[in-house]
């Protein structure tokens, strides 16, 4: 759980956004049919087609988690935010690649291919859906293997919620988990938002996570 404190002289409990530690190891990643293709590619390294692959998926789907798993295994460098500052040698991760400056990404792609470096591009959508203006970059990205992460099914959404709560050191009663699964949209982002809001509410009210609190918070979130 994140930290908590009091406003001076008020006696009111205020949640302080001190963050929380996310478990980022390979054993902490939740595998299901929604993401198994991406996981297979991470586990398959270094047997990748040159110069690398793209992992695409919605917010909160674990793309960056997988990138950290791969970086720990391969010794990769994260190239953001300045792609020009990264030597194109060895394994390289480009997070939010669909938002990267096109000329910098093209230069990095060409340099990686020339130096036999390996690229892992992380993006919200596959390259075919990016609004790319440079024809050379579009053609090069079109040669990359793409592994997409789909929206979660019920089993994965439940596991994702439990992981968010565990990262925040929160105990979740079974009836609260069932309530959330019945009402949340099937997206990783909704699970992350709900867990964060419930954490803040429990801290602010100095209450454990209960079904009445979950109802109250989801009403406030208009979920």
List keywords for this structure.
Helicase, Ruva Protein, domain 3, Rossmann fold, disordered N terminus, 7 strands, alpha/beta, 2 domains, 42% helix, two-stranded antiparallel ribbon, 223 residues
Task: Tell me about this structure.
Strands 4-5-6-3-7 form a five-stranded parallel beta sheet, covered by helices on one side. Strands 1-2 form a two-stranded antiparallel sheet. It folds into two domains: 4-22 and 152-220, Orthogonal Bundle (Helicase, Ruva Protein, domain 3), CATH 1.10.8; 35-148, 3-Layer(aba) Sandwich (Rossmann fold). A hairpin with a 6-residue loop joins strand 1 and strand 2. Helix content is 42%, strand content 11%. The two termini are 23 Å apart. The chain is elongated and about 60 Å long. The chain is built from eight helices and seven strands; from the N terminus they run ββαβαββαβαβαααα. It is an alpha/beta fold.
């Amino acid at each position: 759980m994140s930290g908590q404190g009091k406003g001076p002289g008020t006696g009111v409990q205020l949640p302080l956004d001190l963050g929380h530690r996310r478990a980022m190891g390979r054993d902490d990643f939740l595998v299901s049919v929604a993401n198994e293709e991406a996981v297979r590619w991470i586990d398959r390294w270094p047997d990748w087609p040159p110069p690398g692959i793209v992992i695409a998926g919605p917010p909160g789907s674990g793309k960056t988690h997988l990138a950290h798993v791969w970086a720990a295994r391969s010794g990769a460098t994260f190239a953001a935010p300045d792609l020009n500052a990264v030597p194109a040698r060895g394994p390289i991760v480009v997070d939010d690649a669909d938002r990267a400056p096109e000329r910098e990404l093209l230069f990095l792609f060409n340099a990686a291919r020339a130096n036999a470096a390996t690229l892992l591009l992380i993006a919200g959508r596959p390259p075919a859906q990016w609004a790319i203006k440079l024809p050379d970059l579009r053609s090069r990205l079109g040669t990359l293997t793409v592994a997409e992460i789909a929206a979660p099914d019920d089993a994965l959404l439940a596991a994702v919620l439990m992981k968010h709560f565990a990262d925040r050191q929160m105990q979740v009663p079974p009836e609260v988990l069932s309530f959330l699964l019945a009402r949340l949209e099937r997206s990783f982002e909704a699970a992350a938002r709900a867990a964060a809001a419930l954490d803040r509410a429990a801290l602010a009210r100095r209450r454990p996570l209960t079904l009445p609190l979950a109802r109250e918070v989801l009403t406030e979130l208009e979920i």
